[in-house]
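User: What would this chain look like folded?
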Amino acid sequence: MDPEVIAEARAKLMKKQAGNSDALGGMRRKQKRVHKTPTSTDDKKLLSALKKVGCNPIPGIEEVNMFKSDGRVIHFANPKLQASLGANTYAETREPLRCQAYYAKRLRCLLSPC
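Assistant: Here's the prediction, encoded as structure tokens.
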């Protein structure tokens, strides 16, 4: 090819790239992606899976305490509890409270036979 033709083509290309990005033949802009929080979809999936198992909500429970083998206590105040006795499945869908050592000892004293 002729060097003059190559120089003209390069000049045209530089003019297109340096110009307005919205113009025909300009650079493509990247789209900003908005990430949605997955919590709402996770909750819906969890609730649909629990319905398939046959879990029903249990109303009227004020608190739940779970005692672990290492001596720690997991405490839930006003839990949202669902259970399926046939499938031996229990689901608690609220955030637990952080128990401190004195609270765990107090709970053990209340629940242990004296």
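The chain has a mean pLDDT of 77. If you want, I can go into more detail on any region.
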